[in-house]
Design goal:
There is one protein chain. The protein has seven helices and six strands, in the order ααβαβββααββαα. It is α/β, with parallel strands linked by helices. The chain has one domain: UDP-N-acetylmuramoyl-L-alanine:D-glutamate ligase. Strands 4-3-2-5-1-6 form a six-stranded mixed β-sheet, with helices on both faces. Helix 1 packs across helix 4 and helix 2 runs parallel beside helix 5. The longest helix is centred in the middle third of the chain and has 18 residues. The chain is globular and about 45 Å long.
């Protein structure tokens, strides 16, 4: 019951649509103690194949390291988005994390206009820190430069193929789209 209630809350955040930028997710992460700054991350962007690349990297790296993986969208269950090794985040952990973050937001009097992706990204990064993963594989949701996942400081960035997708958001030319996706590259 509690799990379904928290999922309803999370999915209810979709009413805010997509808000591109890092301010909201950064505020959420700050409320959680900036867990993203404590993680070693492989950040995966591109038009197609991101999920496959994440899965392959996760499979290989999990042989030696404790690896978390955050991908989207899920196929069957929300919990698929956040995994460590072969284990999905549990229903109870989803409940606990959602309630923790909701309480932090309410306690700080933060505006309630966080998107579903902002919220779930913050949850995943906090979860990985709490579970002491040695490495986190994080898939970009859309684009790169203004994607909620772009708050991480990656060890490695992987960019798959670049194609004409989401042109209404990322730009009309392949160069514009590539520039947006390359926005995940840090110095």
């Amino acid at each position: 019951m509690a799990y379904q209630e928290e999922l309803r809350y999370l999915y209810g955040l979709e009413r805010f649509g997509m808000i591109f930028g890092l301010d909201n997710v950064s505020r959420l992460l700050h409320l959680l103690g900036d867990p993203h700054l404590k993680l070693k991350v492989v950040h995966v962007a591109g038009t197609n194949g991101k999920g496959s690349v994440c899965t392959i990297l996760h499979s290989i790296l999990s042989q030696r390291y404790r690896v978390g993986i955050y991908t989207s969208p899920h196929l069957h269950r929300f919990n698929e988005r956040i995994r460590i090794g072969h284990d999905e985040i549990s229903d109870q952990e989803v409940v606990d994390l959602t309630r923790l973050l909701r309480a932090k937001v309410q306690q700080e009097g933060e505006p309630k206009h966080f998107t579903f992706f902002d919220f779930t990204t913050a949850m995943a990064l906090y979860y990985f820190t709490e579970k002491e993963v040695e490495l986190a594989i994080v898939e970009v949701g859309l684009g790169g430069r203004l994607d909620s996942t772009n708050v991480v400081q990656p060890l490695v960035v992987v960019i798959t193929n670049i194609g004409h997708d989401h042109m209404d958001v990322l730009g009309e030319s392949i160069e514009d789209i590539a520039r947006e996706k390359a926005g995940v590259i840090k110095e």
